[in-house]
């Protein structure tokens, strides 16, 4: 929608939050260098509090970096925009609107004509398999369905990039796995660039073409792991394969020390 989508670039990005009463600051991210190609599915993992959400907020234009540069398609990010859709852990649906009404909501603000809104809402509810539930309100939908509505709502703008901050964390294991498959299917069909945050190593290995491991705070890129599971679509239960286990273990090892360090930091903060 915004010309040719050529990808995302973080160059030496840092973010420090002021700490009230101390005169100092808390550095959430420091020296982040990362490039994500157009159409790539990248997953970010890291210990709690290492700045994952902050990284996504910066790319979403919800916050500004203190140092460095974030570029989308070669141009600096200067605020939120319809070229980036965001899906959070909590569905953030409007309770008084139906599934269809929620998907149409964002389009209303952007001046899309009524007939076009209805067409797009139908198209994207169909894409997430919820066409039959279009007239239900959020309280009549399961958690997984609500999250699918939220995904449809983000996709309806036709953003180039989908930013997902632990979107499946609140769901039960089975629903989570089926939404992972659904997301992969949608990603393949739409060719969107996806940046996905998770705490689950399994989820990261299952979804990502690359898994970016961040250090404990301040978050830096510790390692980027290429995931190559060629048999993913042919194997009934790819999570049980030796290859999957090897990737899982490699990322676990990378994370292990960082999680321990993050715990120490937490203890120090409480003791301070
Ligand atoms: N607006 C803010 N003001 C002050 N501190 C903040 C703000 N937002 C985040 N932080 C702090 O910055 C650090 C990074 O937070 P962030 O939410 O990005 O981490 P995270 O890796 O997403 O954590 P989690 O895995 O627990 O969700 C944390 O220590 C957090 O307390």
Automatic annotation (TrEMBL):
Keyword Nucleotide-binding: yes
Gene Ontology molecular function: any one: ATP binding
SMART domains registered for this protein in UniProt: AAA (SM00382)
Coiled-coil ranges from the UniProt annotation: none
Residue intervals of the ABC transporter domain: 8-241
CDD domains: ABC_NrtD_SsuB_transporters (cd03293)
PROSITE patterns noted in UniProt: ABC_TRANSPORTER_1, ABC_TRANSPORTER_2
Keywords annotated in UniProt: ATP-binding, Nucleotide-binding, Transport
Protein name: ABC transporter ATP-binding protein
Originating species: Amycolatopsis halotolerans
């Amino acid at each position: 929608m915004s010309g040719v989508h050529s990808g995302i670039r973080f160059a030496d990005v840092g973010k420090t939050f002021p700490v009230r009463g101390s005169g100092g600051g808390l550095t959430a991210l420091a020296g982040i260098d990362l490039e994500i190609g157009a159409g790539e599915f990248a997953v970010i993992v890291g210990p709690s509090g290492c700045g994952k959400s902050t990284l996504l907020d910066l790319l979403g234009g919800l916050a500004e970096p203190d140092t460095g540069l974030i570029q989308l398609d070669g141009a600096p990010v200067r605020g939120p925009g319809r070229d980036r859709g965001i899906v959070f852990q909590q569905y953030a649906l409007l309770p008084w609107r139906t599934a269809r009404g929620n998907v149409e909501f964002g389009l209303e603000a952007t001046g899309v004509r009524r007939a076009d809104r209805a067409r797009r809402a139908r198209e994207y509810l169909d894409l997430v398999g919820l066409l039959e539930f279009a007239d239900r309100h959020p309280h009549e939908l399961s958690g997984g369905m609500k999250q699918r509505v939220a995904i449809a709502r983000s996709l309806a703008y036709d953003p180039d990039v989908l930013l997902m901050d632990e979107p499946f964390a609140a769901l039960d294991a089975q629903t989570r796995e089926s939404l992972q498959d659904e997301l992969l299917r949608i990603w393949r069909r739409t060719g969107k660039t996806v940046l996905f945050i998770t705490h689950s190593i399994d989820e990261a290995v299952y979804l990502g073409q690359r898994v970016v491991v961040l250090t404990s705070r301040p978050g830096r890129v510790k390692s980027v792991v290429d995931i190559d599971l060629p048999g993913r679509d042919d194997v009934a239960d790819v999570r049980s394969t030796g290859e999957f286990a090897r990737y899982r273990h490699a990322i676990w090892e990378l994370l292990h020390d960082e999680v321990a360090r993050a715990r120490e930091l937490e203890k120090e903060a409480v003791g301070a």
